[in-house]
Design a protein that fits this description.
This protein is an alpha+beta fold. Helices cover about 25% and strands about 30% of the residues. The chain is built from three helices and nine strands, in the order ααβββββββαββ.
């Protein structure tokens, strides 16, 4: 009888721990984005999971997935900046395999919970080049300006 209770408790724990990353870290993550050396750039983050917008420096909560996130930032007077926030696998996913088994890994993979992004990401931006002034026009031969004596 006691052995049966222990077996049931063990199976119950395995089922409860299945999808451990889903429970412990969740399926979303907050990412901070900055645009050195400037601030106030409007940044759009996009992945297969959705689109998010922020003003730098700022943070946004994204849905986790195995896919990278593309970041595009724009600000008047600055060149556009872009980057890719890489998706990585959380280090303790192997432990989840041992505790939660294949069911735990499958749940975490489907929900994206086994993945993570860097919590801070920079999109370097450069000032836009100033407009180039047009060179002065050369005088047309035979024009009144061309016939003037120097210093007159």
């Amino acid at each position: 009888m006691q052995a049966s209770l222990l077996a049931l408790a063990g199976m119950g724990a395995a089922v409860m721990l299945s999808g451990c990353a889903s429970i412990v870290t969740g399926t979303t993550q907050r990412i901070n984005v900055s645009t050195p050396p400037t601030t106030g750039a409007v940044c759009t983050l996009a992945s297969t999971e959705g689109r998010w917008t922020l003003t730098s420096p700022g943070s946004v909560t994204v849905s986790k997935s195995k896919n990278d996130i593309r970041v595009d930032c724009a600000k008047s007077g600055w060149q556009e900046g872009s980057g890719i926030i890489p998706s990585g696998c959380q280090g303790w996913t192997l432990g989840n395999l041992l505790i939660g088994g294949l069911l735990g890994i499958a749940i975490d993979a489907m929900t994206g919970a086994m993945h993570q992004y860097p919590s801070n990401f920079q999109v370097p931006m450069q000032p836009a080049a100033p407009p180039v002034a047009a060179p002065p026009e050369a005088p047309v031969p035979g024009s009144p300006k061309d016939n003037q004596a120097p210093g007159s």
